User: Fold these one by one.
Assistant:
Number 1:
Amino acid sequence: MERNHPIAWHVPNLINICIDSMVDGEMSGRIYHCYSREEICFSNIIRMIETAEEFYDRLQFPQAATQIRSFDRKEPVQEEERPEKVMEPEQILQMRGQKGTFLLNVKYRQNSSWQGYIQWVERDITWHFASVLEFIKILNNALN
């Protein structure tokens, strides 16, 4: 569903995705969030999704409804302290990608996927997505 109003930029898990290049359908760029002053570079869509998923796990928001299974016996994971904000949302909203800038607001992590909103900053268009696959398709269609 496409909407013409922006998503809330004050949510704790807001991610700014700056797409700098798209070669043979593969996106690369940078990710920004309020809990780090450093950019996080990604070279493909899978790495971008893994980076965001690691961020949500560390932030513990939104809480994952399912856990990844493993056949290896693992030591119990000790909970890390939640990170503290080091940047204001206005600062990360200023970063721009060469091909496009997208604000990602994942509201839920249910059914081993994401549900939320993505806003294309340059065009002021917001889409709702119900899965990571739908999220990828929205990004791909926006930049093609």
Number 2:
Amino acid sequence: MSWFKRTKKGIQTPTEEKKDVPKGLWYKSPTGKIVDSEELENNFYVSPEDGYHVRIGSNEYFEILFDDNKYKELDKGLESKDPLKFEDKKKYPDRLKDAQKKTGLKDAVRTAVGKSMGKDIVIACMDFSFIGGSMGSVVGEKIARAAEYALEKKLPFMIISKSGGARMMEAALSLMQLAKTSAKLAKLADAGLPYISLCTDPTTGGTTASFAMLGDINISEPGALIGFAGPRVVRDTTGKELPEGFQTAEFLKEHGFLDFITHRRDLKKNVNLYLDLILNRPLRTVEA
């Protein structure tokens, strides 16, 4: 019978021959809860039974945060180059082309300006689907330019981080983005313009070591992994067992690294509440 093969571990059906439910109709959370995809979308991509926050990208976050999903994208044409002529299993330009074709994105971050609850805000949102949300020169440049735009227009700035860290294909050029983005955020602070950092799952590596932890407030979604190196690397390096919940958003909040954790449905409301308070604006009762 050609539809299966036997191995030492039992019978396995080749992936390409599995008769799964058509993609997009259902979603199964890590805790085993099954939810209709349309219901999931209507619930801000959060599993209603267990509260699991599904990873989403810039398209979804912009839709959640900007009024009527209307915004102006900034620097949308920027693309990475290959100054180091890097090659591992693939040439870097080929890897970029594959990622662009797969995701429809130019790189791992998009920046935009629009209104949120009636007030202008600049938002940079990372996309993990593009080479693991790795931070290369384009990511750093787009965040730096977005910060400059916010400075010029005197607008609040928000970064939504979702990253595996620095992009190895750009080596030291990638690491330089930590300093560049941090310097731009310091200029915002000097000008008295608020910067909000939202850490989502996962926020790791150089992103955590720079702009993700430099917010005037640092916030997160429930259960997000936040750290520099991953738990396995930390455990193997130290040779010690890690505390329960290590590097989760809840663990970091308990130890003072986060200001608060917000459910995604309350994100728009909570961000604007903070901005109203810090900018001394009249509090609004408009629904998010």
Number 3:
Amino acid sequence: MKNEMSKTQEGQRTLTSFERRLRVANRSEQTIRNYVRSLRALMNFHEDLPHELEIDQVIDFLNDLQVEKERNWRTIKIYVAGLRWYYQHMVDQVDLAKQIPYPKEKPSLPKILSREELTLLFDSCLNKKHRVMFRLLYSSGLRRGEILRLTVDDLITKDGKFRIRINCSKGSKDRYTVLSKKVLSELREYYRSYRPKNYLFNGRYKGSPMTAGGLRHALTSAVKRAGINKDVNLHILRHCFASHALEEGMNLKTLQYLLGHSSIKTTMIYLHISEVPLSKAFSPLDAWEK
């Protein structure tokens, strides 16, 4: 019993140390949560400390995720990335890290909503705050975490510019994306009504950001009221932005920059569901909604 307690305490220290190291490495909060979760799951599966395991045991764990728990390849890919980072950077087992295989990708085309469905979704929001948040997510192609971290100062409107500064996004990169003129007008009206503090969109308490769970709940409720019989998540609005922007004439390289994709190959997946006339950057919302 004493030995089991000692190993449990050492396991917790391992997780704490791993989290601290990831934070020092300036990884995003989402990455830290994912990587720590992957290491914790490995330890729980074998009831042993990770540095005492061999490659076959790591493979057994990943096989259980895929076969028994039926996790998809994207989820397993995150687990593999976390375990590789641990073995390479925490315990200097580089050879073991290289032997952990990434799952074979099974890419699928992104699901999107039609323009009519987007209108239904926007009109089904119960308040100005949720409505303008969903319209901003779509019209600027934002990720969930990006909109939750926005401040008023991130909206650039001087000198005739209409864009949003995204700070420390995925991969710790900064970038700019477009700001719809129509949504900007709605944001000003929202600001006058809500007077948010620190963040553009406050949560339950003024000065604190809205939570991902709160935003997700608002979307689920709006989708239900709109009568949309699709599995809709927040990232679909970003897919809609990319697809509709290409259809309205945005250049593929411009879209890659606005989305913050490192590789053009990631952006090119939207070619399968869009046509690509060439034009300069703009928000697709301004092109189709009168």
Number 4:
Amino acid sequence: MIQALTLDAGGTLFHPSRPAGLVYSEVASRWGCRVDPATVQERFAAAWKTWSRTDPGRTTVATPEEERAWWKALVAEVFRGCGTFADFDGFFDELFVAFASPDAWSLYPEVKATLDRLHAAHVPLAIVSNWDPRLELLCDRLGLSGYFTVILASGRVGISKPDPRIFAEAVERLGVAAREAAHIGDSLRDDVHGALGAGLQAVWLRRSSEGMEGPPVPQAVGREPDPEDAAPRGVAVAALLDEAVKLVVS
């Protein structure tokens, strides 16, 4: 019997309010680099896919400083060869701040009703996310905090998914055993494999447009399923959060 749920944040509960390429290109233009939004969107999606697979340090990111440096390097990769900035550091600072605002994010349509049902059923909930410590404030401003007993940001606890220790920390704080909890998230590597490695059940949330986690990173455009992206045997897949919850909570 599942006694508690842990949930990912970006791409699971909320998504960027505006397209990635549009926001990136608007901020870049103010710093002297003019690039077509569609081009930026394509480059971001490609860079994210590459970096997610090669994982240049992502699983070792722990502190806010490391988290920020990782995203700064990724953003630099997105704009490599696209022109010059009057001040790239200034550009990234503005971009980072922009995506820390609750105005930059929107809840997925079914999230509020799903959380209401879980709250009414007294199901303990935790957020487990690779994010900087500002996640707690962001969740509060998005009206999410009241639903969750625990909000764990990697930059706060010093551990990033898929490290099983961050999941172990979540279930310990929820007061349940790992086998009594299930995790729902949109990343096969971070959420599914991470949760399974910690002894939790897992549901892979595959929305039509997959969300990307992290303070300065907006949602990438949807992509065709990658043949390498195959759920482990016995792991359920859902397209919406309420569908995912119904698979593990009766």
